[in-house]
Structure of Sulfate transporter 3.1:
Amino acid sequence: MANNNLVFPGPMTGSGLECMRRVPVPPSRPFLETFHANLKETFFPDDPFRQFKHETGFRRLILGLHYFIPVLDWAPSYSFNFFKSDFIAGITIASLAIPQGISYAKLANLPPILGLYSSFVPPLIYAMLGSSRDLAVGTVAVPSLLIASMVGKEVSASQHPALYLHLAFTVTFFAGVFQATLGLLRLGFIVDFLSHATIVGFMGGAATVVCLQQLKGMLGLQHFTTATDLVSVMESIFTQTHQWRWESVVLGCSFLFFLLLTRFLSKRRPKFFWVSAAAPLISVILGSVLVYLTHAENHGVQVIGYLKKGLNPPSATTLIFSPPYMMLALKTGIITGIIVLAEGIAVGRSFAMFKNYHIDGNKEMIAFGMMNIVGSLTSCYLTTGPFSRSAVNYNAGCKTAISNVVMAAAVMITLLFLTPLFHYTPLVVLSAIIIGAMLGLIDYEAAIHLWHVDKIDFCVCVGAYFGVVLGSVEIGLVIAVAISIFRVLLFVARPRTTMLGNIPNSMIYRRIDQYPMAQRVPGVVILHIDAPIYFANASYLRERISRWIDEEEDKLKSMGKTSLQYVILDLGVVSSIDTSGISMLDEVKKSVDRRGLQLVLANPGSEVMKKLDKSEVLEAIGQEWIFLTVEDAVAACNFMLHTCKPGAGTDDAVVGDDLA
């Protein structure tokens, strides 16, 4: 439908101001072409294929290998100076990885040696496939707790240790497959449903639960509840007061104080970061020597005991792919896989920002997935890039992922020659190490910040925290994700609509509630729709627009001012619209017609114009009442108000042609 030339005579010119800025209907594109463009924008926003353009077949193969195996990119330029930095960083994180690995394996109710196995193979895989230079790979507390909680509900680690171990390997395998699949299919946006507020609350709650669980070791208790909620743990602790061991309490509190003191010193003096990094290993050494010299294991202090020497044995044949436990492993693998992905990618991006380089989230998913798949086949359980270890790696001056290789080499030497030295390591020291690490995850400052900035995000955070602490890890995660998704749906179903006014002495129109100086235009109401229009919000927008008109008419009548004649809808941010949205605009048009008003559209996007045209709603509204900007729409309405009979309707647009 052709657009008429509207001429608005005004005082600025003798002959008038001609408005030639029209809103055209975009040319039609074939469906497959449009579908391809939308698909590319959704799954390939970074356009990873641009590097393959204008390249031959062999060159494309080389570039493809470089894309999926990042080590091929930086290895040719690797220098001895880089290696010196990576070697120091690798040895430093190894001193943290060894005691933490043993501690987290115990947290997952797995043999302690698995913590060392998991710090050997996965870091080697990540060094080849990962795109982060600073991420230090290893086991972490929250997934360890999730495995213990979810698998432990169905299979007892003490009564069926072999089955429990095999399920842990199977969980790791499914988590790896899920992670790699997300990366290959470029579905990483699924992880974005774990918002920052969700992660803060969930991690804080999980850290609290982990600390409560470690009271078993700190108090020297033999029997403890398998439940993770606060009530059950407190009940288990205070019904066994007669079994508390003062030796364990003194030893545990002493080492916990030592660990917290070293962390405090490292924060006050960042150049002494290595003090807190070495503190867990120092604690293990001192605790082992103390137990050995005093024979404390004979006085109620529990020790690790025998650790088998040697490298990771294969575990491919132990994976369980048959009922009744396969679905349990699959469910646990997906949940833990998402958690470690969210943590690992967030940590990697944080340190990449500090060093001003970019990491590809989808490639990171593939790297995490592959290292967990290979790990599950070599007696490892779930790994990711923990913040504490990565922070030590960063502060130690690492240059590339070779620091992970150095760490793996140090763990390999430990597995081959040094495991007997951990025989006398007291479990209470491991509990102190875990508590010391977990206290750093309870980020109360972030929760306070959320309260000041966004109350809804604070509710998400608190819901996740108390869901984990009072219910279970799974309940907390479900509550947090449910609240986050509900918030997204609420934003979609109830988009914000606001009234615009003119900033004095300008042609700018802004929200009246934000800019008190903004003035209403007599006889015109300007409404801004702040979201795409879909079936989920079409009814709400129709009712809300009608309410805006009612309120404006009532206000004008009460003030005795000019009656309302025009309703301008600013569609500048309406990026897309469906058939329900088109029907809503058609109904709004009919509703304002019955009121004797004129509907005017300002700045509709290309998709809106195409669908208005194809549905013939454009013809009903009249393309002469669709303008490029709000200013143009207001100018046209003012012209009609001052030169034509009020409420004349769309036929008055012909005046513009006559004047032309």
Summary: DSSP finds 27 helices and eight strands in the chain. Strands lie at 6-8, 17-19, 497-502, 509-511, 524-529, 566-570, 598-602, 626-627. Confidence is low (pLDDT under 50) at residues 1-20, 645-660. The first strand starts at residue 6 and ends at 8.
